[in-house]
């Protein structure tokens, strides 16, 4: 008989371990939760056993079901990593005697070059908001800060007033794993932050209090979904047909600053990448642009 309470308790202990000892963000832990939920439901429904009783074959059958359901290699790879980490935890806690999934390889996902906006497209989006309205001025400032810093959307909407040092010209960012880093803002973004703080934010707050820098119309922290809607709205107004997300601005920042001559290590630091190989993908974008220029202008291309 499956002891669901036991499995639920183990999963809760795993989440606590990931949060407290590993220092992972709530977003990452929520992602782990969704993946473990899919896996545990499969084990209960199709294998009729508890999580501590699983063997190599159980995970292989689960992966086969994911492939048949049309999951992308990247999603499957993430799930395998999550499940293997869970069983490493169980082994560490001496709940199991050996990790049944040590030998299972994580599927390799196809590396795709991230989509970026060119300089004209960046200008079109950042100039789309009506800066004569309080929300338009906020949106303009959001875009300028995002493009100037390359922040992740979670980092952007989590910024507080105290994170911004306008005198020194930088912001303190709390990134993945609660790691802090300092990122320069730049004159253009600094101008719009000052304008937003004096002309827009007080109108939204209406004598209420909030530490968050960017607010929704109710004076509360802007949500990820809210920012997605803001981007879609202004991209439509700017006539941009690309599928633009907050991460597109991050990609564009990295690509453009590298093209301008920035060194890879500095860009890695500003983006908050723990591994420089993650930053190196943007050098491939620039190589692609160089190939296009060569093909267009070289007489033998």
Structural summary, described in words:
By secondary structure, the chain is mainly α. The protein folds into two domains: 4-92, Tyrosine recombinase, N-terminal domain (DNA polymerase, domain 1); 119-296, Intergrase catalytic core (hpI Integrase, Chain A), CATH 1.10.443.10. It contains 14 helices and three strands. The chain has helices at 4-21, 26-47, 56-68, 73-92, 119-126, 134-149, 153-157, 187-199, 201-205, 224-237, 246-259, 264-271, 276-279, 281-297; strands at residues 164-165, 170-174, 180-184. The chain is elongated. It starts with a helix and ends with a helix.
Broad CATH class of the largest domain: Mainly Alpha
Query: Taking strands numbered 1, 2, ... along the chain, how are they ordered across the largest sheet?
Result: 1-2-3
* CATH architecture assignment of the largest domain: Orthogonal Bundle
Q: Give the CA-CA distance, first to last residue.
A: 69 Å
Quickly count the domains: 2
Shape: elongated
Largest sheet: 3 strands, antiparallel
Specify the helix fraction band.
Answer: 55-70%
What's the gist of this structure?
The protein has helices at 4-21, 26-47, 56-68, 73-92, 119-126, 134-149, 153-157, 187-199, 201-205, 224-237, 246-259, 264-271, 276-279, 281-297; strands spanning 164-165, 170-174, 180-184. By secondary structure, it is mostly helical.
Strand and helix map with partners:
Elements: H1 4-21, H2 26-47, H3 56-68, H4 73-92, H5 119-126, H6 134-149, H7 153-157, E1 164-165, E2 170-174, E3 180-184, H8 187-199, H9 201-205, H10 224-237, H11 246-259, H12 264-271, H13 276-279, H14 281-297
Antiparallel strand pairs: 1-2, 2-3
Helix pairs in contact: 1-2, 2-4, 6-8, 6-11, 11-14
């Amino acid at each position: 008989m499956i002891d669901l309470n036991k499995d639920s308790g183990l999963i809760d202990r795993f989440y606590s371990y990931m949060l407290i000892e590993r220092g992972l963000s709530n977003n990452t832990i929520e992602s782990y939760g969704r993946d473990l939920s899919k896996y545990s439901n499969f084990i209960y429904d199709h294998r009729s056993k508890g999580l501590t009783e699983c063997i190599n074959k159980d995970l292989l059958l689960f992966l086969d079901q994911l492939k048949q359901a049309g999951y992308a290699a990247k999603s499957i790879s993430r799930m395998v990593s999550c499940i293997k980490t869970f069983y490493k935890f169980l082994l560490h806690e001496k709940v199991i005697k050996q990790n049944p999934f040590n030998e299972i390889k994580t599927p390799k996902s196809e590396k795709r070059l991230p989509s970026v906006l060119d300089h004209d497209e960046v200008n079109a989006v950042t100039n789309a908001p009506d800066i004569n309205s309080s929300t338009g001025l906020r949106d303009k400032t959001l875009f300028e800060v995002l493009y100037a810093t390359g922040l992740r959307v979670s980092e952007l909407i989590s910024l507080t007033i105290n994170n911004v040092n306008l005198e020194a010209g930088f912001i303190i960012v709390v990134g993945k794993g609660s790691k802090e880093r300092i990122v320069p803002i730049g004159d253009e973004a600094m101008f719009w932050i000052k304008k937003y703080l004096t002309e827009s934010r007080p109108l939204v707050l209406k004598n209420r209090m909030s530490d968050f820098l960017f607010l929704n119309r109710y004076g509360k922290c802007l949500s990820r979904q809210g920012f997605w809607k803001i981007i879609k709205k202004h991209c439509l107004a700017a006539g941009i047909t690309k599928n633009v997300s907050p991460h597109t601005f991050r990609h564009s920042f990295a690509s453009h600053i590298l093209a301008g001559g920035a060194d890879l290590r500095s860009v890695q630091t500003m983006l908050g990448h723990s591994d420089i190989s993650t930053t190196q993908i943007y050098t491939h974008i620039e190589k692609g642009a160089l190939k296009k220029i060569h093909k267009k202008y070289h007489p033998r291309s």
